[in-house]
Design goal:
alpha/beta; Rossmann fold; 8-stranded mixed sheet; 8 helices; globular; BD-FAE-like domain-containing protein; hydrolase activity; GDXG_lipolytic_enzyme; AB_hydrolase_fold; hydrolase
Length: 265
């Protein structure tokens, strides 16, 4: 197997407000055989926890599994808190949209010259998968770069909030922090998928859930993938197998290879 040496550029500001939650890290192989597709990784954490620094192993794992053929950006976004003025959906999503817009349009960040901005792949885990799905299925009016998104990958994703709460009523603790009550259906990718967007018809979807996921049931993935197919999306891949626990899945080389195989299929 090829030895992978990686360079990382940390704390790149995708907005100029000085808020660490609006920073990202970008990873490249030191030896780049060509202009590289870019993975934008959006972490989970129930919309209230997580930091880009915790997910370097995913960026490095994906680049290693791709044998130097990928760049990876790991994005921070504003997290919800228990305060009354806390950010709620779509605030987190809008942050990620700003990060992708920055990566596509800005000319100054390190490694920009070797990023193929026409080949962006969004990879999200858990709450991050909720956001990556909505970026394709219900993009905000300000997001004019859907054509740059070639694929969306969701791992252990939350796609149907009403069903999640019915199955796990105690999850209302973090859902109530991150969403406005009464809008759960409208804020769910499962229901957004019912409206076919011609602008997104080119987007490929990979929906992954571990059979060993103790936090998010595989029905979230299977129902969502079925809804995509029924709506008319032509390239939808569903994988449900034992890839470990909800968090443990992220450290599995098997997952990295699945994602890389999807990107280069």
């Amino acid at each position: 197997m090829m030895t992978i040496k990686i360079q990382v550029h940390e704390d790149i500001r995708y907005t100029n407000d000085g808020n660490r939650e609006h920073w990202l890290d970008i990873y490249f192989p030191q030896i780049c055989p060509a202009v590289l597709p870019l993975v934008v990784y959006v972490h989970g954490g129930a919309w209230r926890t997580g930091d880009k620094a915790e997910f370097s192993h995913i960026a490095e794992g994906l680049i290693g599994a791709a044998n130097n053929r990928l760049a990876v950006a790991v994005v921070n976004y504003t997290l919800s808190t228990r305060t009354e003025d806390s950010i709620r959906h779509p605030g987190h999503l809008n942050d990620v949209i700003k990060a992708v817009k920055f990566l596509v349009t800005d000319q100054d960040y390190p490694g920009r010259s070797i990023v193929d901005t026409r080949r962006i792949f969004l990879v999200g885990h858990s709450a991050g998968a909720h956001m990556t799905a909505l970026m394709a299925l219900a993009p905000q009016p300000a997001f004019q770069y859907l054509g740059n998104i070639r694929g969306v990958v969701g791992v252990g994703g939350i796609y149907n909030i009403p069903k999640l709460l019915k199955t796990n009523p105690d999850y209302s603790d973090f859902i109530d922090m991150a969403f406005v009550k009464g809008q759960h259906q409208a804020d769910s990718p499962h229901y957004a998928a019912k409206v076919m967007l011609a602008a997104a018809s080119h987007v490929r979807f990979l929906v992954v859930n571990s059979a060993g996921d103790e936090l998010v049931g595989s029905d979230q993935a299977t129902d969502f993938a079925s809804q995509l197919v029924e709506t008319g999306y032509r390239d939808v891949t569903l994988i449900v197998r034992d890839l470990g626990t909800h968090e443990g899945t992220l450290g599995r080389r098997e997952l990295w290879e699945i994602v890389v195989g999807f990107i280069f299929n």
